[in-house]
Amino acid sequence: MKATHRPDIFTFSSFDAARNLDFNGYYLIRDGGGLLVDPVPMSEHDRQHASALGGVSCIIVTNSDHVRDSLALARHFGAAIAGPAGERSAFPIPCNRWLDAGNPSLPGIEVLAQRGSKTPGELALVVDEDTLITGDLVRAHGGGRLDLLPDAKLRDREAALASVHGLAERAAVEAVLVGDGWPVFRDGHARLQELLQRLRAR
Amino acid sequence: MKATHRPDIFTFSSFDAARNLDFNGYYLIRDGGGLLVDPVPMSEHDRQHASALGGVSCIIVTNSDHVRDSLALARHFGAAIAGPAGERSAFPIPCNRWLDAGNPSLPGIEVLAQRGSKTPGELALVVDEDTLITGDLVRAHGGGRLDLLPDAKLRDREAALASVHGLAERAAVEAVLVGDGWPVFRDGHARLQELLQRLRAR
User: Fold this and answer.
1) Which of A104, B16, B181, B189 places its Cα 20 to 30 Å from the Cα of B38?
2) B169 close to A127: Cβ distance less than 8 angstroms
């Protein structure tokens, strides 16, 4: 797995030829057990790397379209799967837990609801206030800037903009680790504000 | 290939398990023919992508250790290979041209010499003043910051620091596209200055 801006967060990717960008999964070392977020398939090397760092006790899937390799990795690591409570009724895989906004069960990790996105209950995570992990709504098609899911895929553009507004208000966010595209490791707060301004200027 | 900060520059990577980072090749659309820099192997998808963007007329190899898949790609695209003049006497592959600092034959691209690095004649490129492409000397082991090749691999640390100083003086540099690790797409000038300060503080 690749290092990020923090020594306790790693990432692994798989290139998506249809969109010409990387899909990213994240691995977090946490008290109480390692965490995977929206994991793409992991190579044997990366699985061993995660095991050496403490293994995986929980896999968080931010939305129905980001299940990726969660089931196989849950089996491999003996991990529980936590899915978005707002998509429980039609989630594509069985989950051990359901997360909703404000769910306090993950120490140091804040669970946010993202409204208006492609799926009704998408989640985003804020880790120790400085690191935002996004699922589908906020992404990065190019380097050094953030993007929103294209309008055609949004359920409600105004609600989506309100979600981005909520993210852009978090002044302590340094990194924005996107599920799709280039992670932003510095000045995440400024990049979110730029995104919001660009979206509102349209 | 993945988009970068500019619509005319793309990148493609291969994960190096020994260092847990990506090795990156770059593709530039240029008047007079596409350019590859330090290309890692390209998938069939990426080769077709480059062909659709205008093909490749020249492959620049910044140093003897970054030959990577240049020979096979030169054959595939019918491209010339340009190597560093300072490593001509022992370069691992035949080159059609040799580049030295200040070489004016590539319009809009400035060729810089990097002294003190792992190999004697390493090059760096500055594209249209805003984009620095580095070979081995400047790299990024983590996200959002730049690193220098470890001391043990440097031929001359003082000379290497002088090279970084030269890069850090270029105020117009926005992106630092590294051969090894995470590309920096924003505030490249500030990241180079931070690197220089960190190296001098040791």
Assistant:
1) B189
2) no
Specify the DSSP element, H or E, that contains A77. Answer: helix A70-77
DSSP three-state, residue A81: strand
Contact residues for A192 (Cβ-Cβ < 8 A; gap 6+): A132, A138, A146, A164, A167, A168, A170, A173, A176
**A179, A11 contact by CB (below 8 A):** no
Distance between CA A119 and CA A34 in Å, rounded?
A: 26
The answer to whether A49 faces chain B, any CB pair under 8 Å, is yes
Chain B residues with beta carbon closer than 8 angstroms to that of A185: 142-145, 182
- The pLDDT value recorded for residue A202 is 81
Average confidence (pLDDT) over A38-57: 98
For an interface test with A, the pick among B46, B186, B187, B189 (most A C-beta atoms closer than 10 Å) comes out as: B186
Q: Strand, coil or helix: what is B201?
A: helix
- Count contacts between A and B (CB, < 8 Å): 68
* Window 163-182 of B, Cβ < 8 Å to A: 175, 182
Q: What is the pLDDT of residues B68-119, one digit of tens each?
A: 999 999 999 999 999 999 999 999 999 999 999 987 778 899 999 999 999 9
pTM of the predicted model as reported, rounded to 2 decimal places: 0.97
